[in-house]
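ok trying again, last paste got cut off:
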Amino acid sequence: MIHSLRLKNFKALLGWLILSDEDGILAVHPNQRVELLEGTDILPILSNIHLSLTVEQIFSWLNI
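nice, full thing came through this time. structure:
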């Protein structure tokens, strides 16, 4: 599955994959580094966007 998330092919700078069964979010960085974030972990955001979000906030909005 991760191989299908090759960000360089899409010129993306950052990707999130929500894992609803595990209450986690995979953050995929341009260098293909993948990071599992859970609970109160703060999600990576593009540097020009001034925002702070946690995994818990995303799941509370989605009601998953």
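cool. The first strand starts at residue 15 and ends at 19. Residues 55 and 61 are 10 Å apart (CA to CA).
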